[in-house]
Specification:
Layout (H helix, E strand, L loop, with lengths): L2 H22 L29 H4 L2 E2 L13 H14 L7 E6 L3 E6 L6 E9 L2 E6 L2 E2 L10 E2 L1 H13 L10
Parallel strand pairs: 1-5
Antiparallel strand pairs: 2-3, 3-4, 4-5, 6-7
Helix pairs in contact: 3-4
Length: 173
């Protein structure tokens, strides 16, 4: 027979006996170990973030005034076009300043002078998350009759300017 197997086989019951005897002793103390306090993780509960919330990336925009020139799209795709449009105008920061969760959906604060705040009313329809882009105040327009932009017009403008940059010269500096 293999001697090492035989030695290990006899050693195990002896070791088990020692552990059993020691576990009954009152003088054996087990050291306590304290773990560091872990930081609390919160998932977007009215906390602003620059990243587009995951739920919105694939949320369908349901504004109805679509044409052949403006396809139906998701909120994620709309933000992609907005970022391209903003970069085409030589802005140094991103279009999105922050996202906030609201009782009716989401609020986008932008770095654009023209579109400061954009409200998205969102809900689940037929197992699909959908959003409607609400009317937007044009902060650069002082005249009341020209101050408000429909969500449809916003989508058309962002799509047209984000799809193709008409700028021929490079941005300065």
């Amino acid at each position: 027979m293999n001697k090492s197997w035989h030695t290990g086989c006899c050693l195990f019951p002896k070791l088990l006996l020692v552990i059993t005897i020691l576990s009954g002793c009152s003088s054996v103390t087990v050291p306590s170990i304290s773990l560091p306090k872990m930081p609390e993780i919160t998932l977007m509960k009215n906390k602003a973030t620059q990243s587009t919330p995951r739920a919105l990336l694939s949320a369908r925009i349901v504004n109805t005034d679509y044409t052949d020139q403006v396809p139906k799209m998701t909120v994620g795709k709309l933000i992609e076009y907005a970022e391209r449009s903003f970069a085409c105008e030589c802005h140094r920061e991103r279009f999105v300043k922050s996202w906030d969760k609201s009782s009716k959906g989401y609020v986008l604060s932008s770095n654009s002078e023209k579109f400061n705040t954009i409200y998205f009313s969102c809900e689940t329809q037929e197992d699909e998350y959908t959003c409607f882009v609400n009317e937007i105040e044009n902060a650069t327009e002082p005249e009341l009759s020209q101050r408000y932009f429909s969500g449809d017009d916003f989508i058309k403008t962002i799509y047209a300017n984000g799809r193709v940059c008409k700028r021929q010269e490079p941005c300065e500096g």
